[in-house]
Amino acid sequence: MRKINRRNFLKVTGVLAAASALAACGGSSTSTAGSTGSTAGSAAGADGAKAYNELTVGTDNTDLKADLKFVSHRTDLIEDGTFDGYVAAFQKLYPNITIKYEGITDYANDMTTRLTSNDWGDLCMIPTNIPLTELGDYFEPLCALSDIENDYNFASNRAYNGSVYGIPSTGNAQGIIYNKKVFEAAGITTLPKTPDEFLDDLQKIKDYDPSIDPLYTNYAAGWTMTAWDAYTSGGATGDPDWMNITMPQTKDPFQKGILGADDMGPYAVYYILYEAVKRGLTEADPTTTDWEGSKPRINNGQIGAMVLGSWAIVQMQAAGDHADDIGYMPFPITVKGTQYASAGADYCYGVNKNTTDDKKLAAMLYIKWLTESSNFAYDQGGVPVLKSQEYPDTLKAFDGIDLVEDAPAPAELADLATEVQQEAELMLNADQTHVMRVVEAGINGDETLDDIVADWNAAWNKAVDDCAPQ
């Protein structure tokens, strides 16, 4: 097993560089919040135009003509023709609206940079590292939050000052994809509920068949490593306020035992990754992992488990002849006797505020059709956006698990989480380098997890001092 050298392997791009176009700590809360708040409440319905919630797809504006460019992170659905199928179905209702997709692989980084130009396209998936206070600088306000929050799950995910700028494409429950046959063959009869139980199960898989990778990190893809951050909020704490309200005002949030026990809280999440790598319970050489290749490998039983959101279930099922072998389990952390799972919006649809009025209307109609009529969320194995829709069978293991959605911060703290993360250079759920460091340390043995956490906490504490209200 060779040592990993980030300088030779990883070219760091985008998130921190693109931050120059976004707010630094405290940089835009005053100037942007005012303009966003003053226009958002009424713009969607200005000049007699209907807001998103008022549109009736298939009835309103069926003669509308528009050519839309849609920028998406789902390169797989572009390449396999899935999105073409959605467009064809939509065009049965709106034959004069054409929609062309453009896919970006390194989406969060590249799209954040492109947003600084006004002509990037007409609609896109809103990058998650854009501060809420800056949504109105790039995206059209679609409706008031109060108009859809009773009907839509995760409606507040890309809302600010009471206005919605992004409609969730689907919801993710944060768990672990696993091969049920592999677990059964290794003698695992109950799903793990704690970090050590999960690590013990990975060891059972290795002992059963050393040719199987018990846990596959997908390190080489880079972006896949950000998945680990998603488990540090409600799933690890049981607290919907943790990510957006509590953590940005808390010193040493990554410290072992921050919530009173070592096997819960953010530390416990990274502990699983670090220990799995250190104990040889992952692939032999993370620099050679293959994202596309991992899909058929877990499908046919060469991989035991992968830490990814529920969005990935369908991809793993479709990658071979053993779809029924793919299962999805809650993340193995139990908080004071209760097992939780973080749940939240996947990327949200956003409309370019600088495009034409006809294109804005066409984009809203397509978004509403995707959300309410296409069955996209269900087909992708996700938590449904409409509260009236059914959960897919892939999430049956979550019956009885308390789903925790991150609560939005109050207006005066709306951008605090992003500001602290940018200041600390720890962009959770967006930048992969800090998680990759955990893998590197587990392999190289040159840092302990406690060493890494000490660095993270030092940077975080300074950011809290600089950004959080005193």
UniProtKB/TrEMBL annotation:
InterPro entries, per database record: Bact_solute-bd_prot1, SBP, TAT_signal, TAT_signal_bac_arc
Assigned keywords, A-Z: Cell membrane, Lipoprotein, Membrane, Palmitate, Signal
SUPFAM superfamilies (UniProt xref): Periplasmic binding protein-like II
Signal peptide span: 1-23
Pfam families registered for this protein in UniProt: SBP_bac_1, TAT_signal
Top-rank taxon, per record: Bacteria
PANTHER family: ARABINOSE-BINDING PROTEIN-RELATED (PTHR43649), POLYGALACTURONAN_RHAMNOGALACTURONAN-BINDING PROTEIN YTCQ (PTHR43649:SF33)
Protein name (Swiss-Prot/TrEMBL): ABC transporter substrate-binding protein
UniProt organism field: Faecalibacterium tardum
Taxonomy of the source species: Bacteria, Bacillati, Bacillota, Clostridia, Eubacteriales
